[in-house]
Amino acid sequence: MATREGSLEAPKREPIDWQNPEFFDPEPLYDELERVFDICHGCRRCVSLCDAFPTLFDLVDESDTMEVDGVDKDDYMKVVDQCFLCDLCAETKCPYLPPHEWALDFPHLMLRAKAYRFKKQDTKWRDRIITSTDPVFDAVSIPGIAQTANAAANSKPLRKLGEKLGIHPDAPLPEFHSKTLSKRVAPKLGASLDVTPCESTKGKVAIYVTCYGEHNEPQVVEDMIAVFNHNSIPVKLLNDAKCCGMPKLELGDLNKVDKLKDANLPVFLQAIEEGYDIVAPIPSCVLMYKQELPLMYPEDPGVTAVKNAFFDPFEYLSLRHKAGLIRTDFQQSLGTVAYHVACHQRVQNIGMKTREFLSLIEGTEVTPIERCSGHDGTYAVKAETYDKAMKIARPVVNRVKQAEPDTYGSDCPMAGRLIAHGLDGELDQGSAEHPISMVRRAYGV
Questions:
Q1: Same domain, 333 and 268
Q2: Quick one: DSSP state of residue 336?
Q3: Is pLDDT larger for residue 35 or for residue 429?
Q4: Which residues are within 8 A (CB) of 125 and not within 5 positions of it... i.e. 6 or more apart?
């Protein structure tokens, strides 16, 4: 019977068998890497997504045999280094994902390789530090230290010193706020509003603030609260929750992911028991609880309950709009919007809910850009990958320029910051704007 060239069925991500000891065994791991690399070499559909695939294909093309069997297995990790687990290859390109008989899942194989390398302690200390968001962000946000850190981020001599630590001197770094979100906003807002459930939503929201929303972009969460309250959706903040674990997942530190899951699950389940849906402002954090953790813990009823209650902000607003529960009395147009669709939102398979919602604003024209910004969580700040990140970002930056927008931005603030960095002041609009902030501005609240 002939092997099918691709699959017509909907892709199905299989559970991540990370608790099986063989998951970390180098012999079957390298056998699987060779098998998958050989399939990818014969396909090459994903060459435009990130640098993992060009790295692989260059290794093959420069080998003696011009096949995968000619590539030194010691070089396999060069491919792994370039994967930042955006999941786009699996969700948007690969025809060999299960249920195809070849059962190829490139991102989860890269995760396995990263986990193997982390377990044998072949990970840079810099990467361990910059992915430890809870302790690092808490420390940097202390009054006095935050101002010093922000000043250092804009000092060329200090950035040059930082290069010795593996941080590229030109990479845009996030701003830290000593007045964090939890110091700005009351735990509950809109308590006097009547709760109006509909078929798909409960009508009140617990916001998983995230490390980034607490320390770096508190204004985005404030804008989200304003938009939700304006639409009669009461909210409360889950200030006790820890990091979602995505930075540690990308590092391959699965034991730390496990600990963060155990810390967060009781907080989320308590909110669900109190009748709340859960929303987070950062696509990566949403994806972690909607896809990655459910695939790591397919039999955990708590993880499943959280998955079913977790929403992207614009997915939530769109569901409420479909039920006739969203105000459309916008006070001003946004004009032309260049909207970058974040990778970790695209692979949630919810459709372009942000574009749909922005298009409700009269006089607003949205140009969506479905290309990777190149940022990843830490990829764009590392000395060895910054230039590659900027190369990946270049098509997105060019699309923003071509749109000649009145405003531009992304659901991912980190992606928006890198796009703004790539524009280097060429647009009058200055910095990128989160779409939820655009909506608040359009409402005039």
A1: no
A2: E
A3: 35
A4: none
The contacts of residue 306 (CB under 8 Å, 6+ apart) are 265, 268, 269, 272, 278, 289, 293
The first and second tokens of residue 66, run together, are 């011009």
Check whether residue 114 and residue 94 sit in a common domain.
yes
CB atoms within 10 A of CB 6: 12
Asked if the structure places residue 90 within a domain, the reply is yes
pTM passes above 0.85: yes
Please give the share of the chain, as a percent, with pLDDT higher than 70.
Answer: 97
Q: How far apart are CA 255 and CA 245, in angstroms?
A: 10
Question: In the predicted model, what is the mean pLDDT of the chain?
Answer: 90
Whether residue 46 is contained in a domain is answered as: yes
pLDDT for res 333 = 96
Instruction: Write the CATH number for 402.
Output: 3.40.50
Q: Say if 151 falls within a structural domain.
A: yes
My answer on whether 130 and 231 are in the same domain is no
Query: Which string of DSSP letters, residue by residue, matches 198-244?
Result: -SS--S-EEE--HHHHHHT-HHHHHHHHHHHHHTT--EEE-TT----
User: Containing domain of residue 429, as a range?
Assistant: 329-443
247 and 354 share one domain: no
Query: How many other C-beta atoms are found inside a 10 Å radius of the C-beta of residue 364?
Result: 19
Q: State the DSSP string of 349-390.
A: ---SHHHHHHTTSTT-EEEEE-S--S-TTTGGGBTTTHHHHH
Segment 230-281, tens digit of pLDDT: 999 999 999 889 999 999 999 999 999 999 999 999 999 999 999 999 999 9
Pair (113, 139) in one structural domain: no
DSSP 167: B
Do 186 and 315 belong together in one domain? yes
Closest by CA position to 289, among listed 324, 253, 249, 251? 249
Out of 98, 133, 163, a domain closes at: 163
- How many structural domains does the chain have? 4
Q: Does residue 16 sit within a domain?
A: no
- Strands 235-237 vs 188-189: parallel, antiparallel or unpaired: antiparallel
Spatial contact of 265 and 302, defined as CB atoms under 8 Å apart: yes
